[in-house]
Amino acid sequence: MSKIEEVKSNVEAGKTKLISGLVQEALDEGYAANDILQAMIDGMGTVGDKFSAGTIFVPEMLIAAKAMSLGVDVLKPHLAKETSISLGTCIIGTVQGDLHDIGKNLVTMMLESAGFTMVDLGVDVPAEKFIQAVKENENVKLVACSGLLSTTMPAMQATVEALKESGLSGFKVIVGGAPVTQEFADKIGADAYAPDAGSAAVKARELVNSL
Ligand code: B1M
After folding, report:
1. Which end of the chain has fewer CB atoms surrounding its CB within 10 Å, N or C?
2. Ligand 1 proximal residues by C-beta, below 6 Å
3. Strand (E) positions, the chain?
4. Ligand 1 pocket: which of 100, 125, 153 to mutate (most atoms <8 Å of CB)?
5. What is the tens place of the pLDDT at every residue in 52-76?
6. 49 shares a domain with 15
7. Which of 82, 114, 134 is where one domain is finished?
8. Ligand 1 atom at shortest distance from the alpha carbon of 66
């Protein structure tokens, strides 16, 4: 088994004590950070499939998520390229009712390296908290909403609508997460949709430059 396959299977198995060392070994063997990240994302995909099939349960998903986060910590300096460009402040959070944060954390990392000052509100964030953060922080140019559950898509819609109806201006709204599509983003009035963290950074830069 190659080192990168080992990383994937150890994320799937939630081997929290081994994962940091394995990711470092994969880097040392010359694997690209993006490929190692993709292997871990694929591992989480398998975890989701097993959960859907009823062969694993929430505790196993949780421990796999912990392993992935530890792996991402090792990758972080290799993924995030520092930039001196300042694009303003971005408020980010996972919408109300939703506790998934790995994708949101990856988006945070990519936006930070693209030049945004990030204010991370965490998970299960109600619309009012997004609005409050726009009011309380300086130079807010972007609000980014993540959601992983189809059951929390209405909360994403409520958040975007509340932001648009708040009377606040000078910022754009980007949405994303596994069940979110361009069609849904258009329907709820978001300014942009991105399918992954890398394209979120590209879209975010375009959005802010168009302000
Ligand atoms: Co949950 N869960 N989970 N879970 N979980 C999913 C999402 C699910 C697809 C699993 C399945 O059934 N196959 C399913 C949702 C089904 C649906 O709604 N369609 C599900 C379910 C049902 C649940 C619970 C309801 C289970 C239960 O309790 N019965 C429960 C809900 C809790 C809640 O939120 N209220 C639950 C709980 C959990 C854990 C807490 C155990 C854990 C999360 C831990 C954590 O995040 N700290 C967990 C996990 C780990 C998963 C899976 C296995 C992995 C998610 C993940 O981290 N993927 C997931 C299955 C899957 O995704 N295949 C699943 C890796 C991550 C990098 O990808 O987050 O998609 P992702 O992010 C991507 C893109 O989506 C995008 O960029 C990232 C890649 O670059 N992206 C954005 C994300 N946000 C973005 C924002 C943007 C742009 C792009 O702009 C702002």
Report:
1. N
2. 41, 44-45, 47-48, 51-52, 58, 61-62, 64-65, 97-104, 106-107, 144-146, 148-151, 174-179, 194, 196-197, 200
3. 88-94, 116-120, 140-146, 172-176, 192-193
4. 100
5. 999 999 999 999 999 999 999 999 9
6. yes
7. 82
8. 47
User: What are the pLDDT digits (tens) for 96-143?
Assistant: 999 999 999 999 999 998 899 999 999 999 999 999 999 999 999 999
Distance between CA 29 and CA 183 in Å, rounded?
41
Coil vs helix vs strand at 112:
helix
Tell me: the pLDDT tens digits for 194-211?
Answer: 999 989 999 999 999 888
Beta strands in 9-81 (DSSP E): none
Tell me how far apart the alpha carbons of residues 203 and 205 are, in angstroms, rounded to a whole number: 5
- Count the domains in the chain: 2
Same domain, 92 and 173: yes
Res. 83: pLDDT tops 70: no
Are residues 46 and 134 both part of a single domain?
no
Give 149 Cα–ligand 1 centroid separation in angstroms: 7
